[in-house]
Prior knowledge:
Elements: H1 2-11, H2 15-27, H3 34-41, H4 45-61, H5 63-68, H6 74-79, H7 83-94, E1 102-104, H8 111-118, E2 123-127, H9 130-140, E3 148-151, H10 154-157, E4 167-170, E5 175-176, E6 179-180, H11 193-196, E7 204-209, H12 215-221, E8 226-233, E9 236-244, E10 252-257, E11 263-265, H13 266-271, E12 277-286, H14 288-293, E13 305-306, E14 314-318, E15 325-336, H15 338-347, E16 354-358, H16 364-370, E17 380-386, E18 389-397
Parallel strand pairs: 1-2, 1-4, 2-3, 4-7, 8-10, 16-17
Antiparallel strand pairs: 5-6, 7-9, 8-9, 10-11, 12-14, 12-15, 13-14, 15-18, 17-18
Amino acid sequence: xxxxxxxxxxxxxxxxxxxxxxxxxxxxxxxxxxxxxxxxxxxxxxxxxxxxxxxxxxxxxxxxxxxxxxxxxxxxxxxxxxxxxxxxxxxxxxxxxxxxxxxxxxxxxxxxxxxxxxxxxxxxxxxxxxxxxxxxxxxxxxxxxxxxxxxxxxxxxxxxxxxxxxxxxxxxxxxxxxxxxxxxxxxxxxxxxxxxxxxxxxxxxxxxxxxxxxxxxxxxxxxxxxxxxxxxxxxxxxxxxxxxxxxxxxxxxxxxxxxxxxxxxxxxxxxxxxxxxxxxxxxxxxxxxxxxxxxxxxxxxxxxxxxxxxxxxxxxxxxxxxxxxxxxxxxxxxxxxxxxxxxxxxxxxxxxxxxxxxxxxxxxxxxxxxxxxxxxxxxxxxxxxxxxxxxxxxxxxx
Length: 398
């Protein structure tokens, strides 16, 4: 395991040569040949080759870690939080939560712990996997703000902190092997929900969940007061965060993370939205996080006219913040059977389009086949089903 030999690399030759060569070659986009690898690094060749292969992923997901000279492990790199998301979350909640020490009970690769430590918080991180723990210890030692790592179980460490004023970070395991536990909240590990009953008034909890978690089930299950935040990066909804604290009002919001590691909220963007008139009618599809938070149901207004019964698409004559969702220029609006819509598309010589469906019994692939369309990244068709048939919009990028 990389984590087990990292300390050797730090203390022996060709340690510095190996790490600097990996980074130098990557920065110059000149991968060394297998022969050169063997000649330069001998027994370290597999490690050098593996690190080279992971550099591209790390450059976009953890650029600060890459530049610090950290080593990566494939599965951990795939599953960990990106540095932009981790920094944005820490900065956002840093302003809301008193300067409490942080106890990360499910630290994993250590990115969230690292982000809180960068803000000057005292951070203790617990991880039960020895290899992952060792890798994190080595990597985090390369940064100026230290995180205390403990190789232990959350169930062992939590009782030591129950009476302390602290911010708990918890990312419970939501899988049983390859099986997703979904709404089986009692099966999450660690089993955090009874721990909340021991919460003191000075404590804050941030509980990370899957963004597709049944929010109604959460509301029924969690008896403590909490606020909820969906975290989005680009077009993806990354996670759901529950902020459990005494002054929670049950508010919901979305954090739209920027690449710079800061976040804008749905509430802020809507409050400051500049309603610039569009030269042509637009179709607006809210961000996926808006559906998770059910904010799409609150949009119907003179500015956003719901185009489907359950507010999946909207027609609007105004531009708006890109983070809130995607806008497309409406080229045509068609109603009727899929056959009649196909004929209308054929009249317009449309034979290729990417198809998106909402509130429809058919899948996007089924609709695309029935419309006789091939896939395209330039032209788009949005469709929904009504009691009378189908409604489809032929749209183009704004």
